[in-house]
Design brief:
Elements lengths: L5 H9 L2 H21 L4 E7 L3 H17 L3 E7 L4 H12 L6 E5 L12 E2 L3 H6 L9 H5 L2 E2 L2 E2 L2 E2 L1 E10 H6 L15 H13 L8 E2 L5 H14 L16 H16 L10 H9 L3 E5 L3 H7 L3 E5 L9 E4 L1 E6 L6 H16 L2 H4 L4 E2 L2 H4 L2 H4 L4 H4 L6 E2 L12 H14 L5 H17 L9 H4 L4
Parallel strand pairs: 1-2, 1-3, 9-10, 12-15
Antiparallel strand pairs: 3-13, 4-13, 5-6, 7-13, 8-10, 8-11, 8-12, 8-14
Helix pairs in contact: 1-2, 2-3, 9-10, 9-18, 10-19, 18-19
């Protein structure tokens, strides 16, 4: 439970995705093995966690790089998504067996002991290959900066979205003249939209899927709406919890209301929400990685950032980023090759956008080809309204923070705990985590520095 992309992988399997996954597996094993045996001047070992459609797109970009750089051999390996990936990457870095290049979620970088398990990027070398700070959203770029050094180069921003069925919303009178969902700026407006959409929904279908029993999705939605309210987590020194339980209660009550008012059916959590959407449910909230799923289903749909119901636009965002796992002898051709490979993929992320992700490299966003991509062109603004987790060692995708507070949010959404009680429990968990030590280096958040 809680694996983002579970719906994507399951649905792709029923829509031809098994062929994609199979071809990806062959490419990862066969091409990589051939790379080590080739006579190329430079070899770069690269670990990632991309499977399914993302894996297919990454392989396409790697093959394009190989074609353009025949003197460089890339040995790419795909490891199991989530905690297993991070555990293996940490062990490899600690044991001096790390690959030359790796991928991480940006939110995990702070907790990965930068300087000990990660090496800093050579920004001058990156610039030589066309990657410069000014070509990225400043907030996104600075998430990879720890103690003044760059430890992560962003590839994308992947965000939580409000997917909607245009056919149902048109019937309900909820589409504007531009063919997009009518704008929403308050909770009252949002529930009015749901009320009208429900009238146009086929019997047996829920009005909206919100992954109500999934701890990761519920946490991501909470981060978005809590950020819309201007909520904070810790002080600048990471020594005190500044979590606002009143604002948290507002968010929890909002999420819970989708069930109590009958718009989300409790038993339709997880992949059932995506299946309901394909079958005609007007709304579902989930990550942009579901774009290929709905494209494959050939339904008339759109996607917008999560509605700014509390006035301030903000939708949860994470980022895949390139990192340099620590090597005691890092340098030479392999290190330069890692910089060159990462820069190439970042600059050629048009292919990556097919998976729904927003390319981090802003020049890609300004191309005519990207502007024609739908629904990507509808939610690209999410890049400038990112709601991210606090920059502390226990945050990030599949991190301890989501594991601790996610179930608390679910208990409120599903009705086993009152919102105000859940908010206080969240505050208690944040207090405990702030005082705990990172097992990577034995330091608390305050001792780790983690300042951009």
């Amino acid at each position: 439970m809680g694996r983002p992309g579970l719906n994507r992988r399951q649905l792709l399997a029923t829509a031809g995705g098994l062929a994609v996954a199979g071809s990806f597996g062959f490419a990862a094993l066969g091409t990589g093995a051939d790379a080590l045996a080739s006579g190329a001047d430079t070899r770069v070992r690269y670990w990632n966690l991309f499977s399914g459609g993302d894996g297919y797109n990454m392989i396409a970009m790697l093959n394009a790089f190989r074609k353009d750089h025949p003197d460089m051999a890339v040995k790419d390996s795909t490891l199991q998504w989530g905690s297993p990936f991070y555990t293996k990457l940490a062990m490899a870095a600690a044991g001096n067996r790390a690959p030359d290049l790796g991928v991480m979620h940006m939110g995990r970088v702070t907790g990965f002991s930068p300087g000990r398990l990660l090496d800093a990027w050579d920004v001058d070398l990156l610039a030589r290959y066309g990657v410069r700070k000014q070509d990225f959203n400043p907030q996104l770029w600075n998430r990879g900066v720890i103690d003044g050094k760059l430890y992560a180069v962003p590839l994308d921003s992947h965000v939580q979205l409000c997917f909607y069925r245009k056919d149902v919303l048109k019937k309900a009178g909820l589409l504007g003249d531009d063919g997009r969902m009518v704008p929403v700026t308050s909770t009252d407006e949002w529930f009015d939209v749901l009320k009208e959409a429900k009238k146009a929904t086929k019997r047996g279908l829920q009005t909206i899927g919100i992954w109500n029993s999934d701890q990761n999705f519920q946490w991501w939605f909470f981060v978005a709406f809590y950020t819309q309210l201007g909520g904070t987590w810790f002080n600048d020194a990471d020594t005190e919890v500044t979590f606002d339980t009143d604002k948290a209660t507002q968010v929890l009550e909002f999420l819970r209301r989708h069930i109590t008012d009958g718009y989300a059916i409790p038993s339709f959590g997880g992949t059932a929400s995506a299946e309901q959407f394909v079958n005609g449910s007007p709304f579902v909230w989930e990550g942009n990685w579901s774009v290929p799923v709905y494209d494959t289903a050939k339904i008339d749909y759109g996607a917008t950032p999560l509605p700014p119901v509390f006035g301030r636009p903000a939708t949860h965002a994470e980022s895949h980023a390139f990192v340099l796992p620590h090597q005691s002898d890092r340098g030479g051709p392999a290190n330069e090759g890692a910089h060159q490979l990462a820069a190439y993929i970042v600059r050629h992320a048009q292919q990556w956008a097919l998976g729904g992700h927003i390319p981090a490299y802003r020049p890609v966003l300004s191309t005519a080809a990207y502007k024609k991509m739908s629904p990507q062109n509808e939610y690209v603004s999410a890049m400038d309204h990112q709601a991210t987790e606090p920059k502390v060692w226990f945050a990030g995708s599949t991190g301890i923070l989501a594991q601790r507070v996610g179930p608390v949010i679910v208990s409120s959404t599903m009705g086993s705990a009152k919102p105000e009680t859940a908010a206080r429990r969240m505050q208690s968990e944040l207090t405990r985590l702030l005082a705990s030590k990172n097992p990577m280096d034995g330091k608390t958040a305050a001792q780790g520095g983690a300042v951009a």
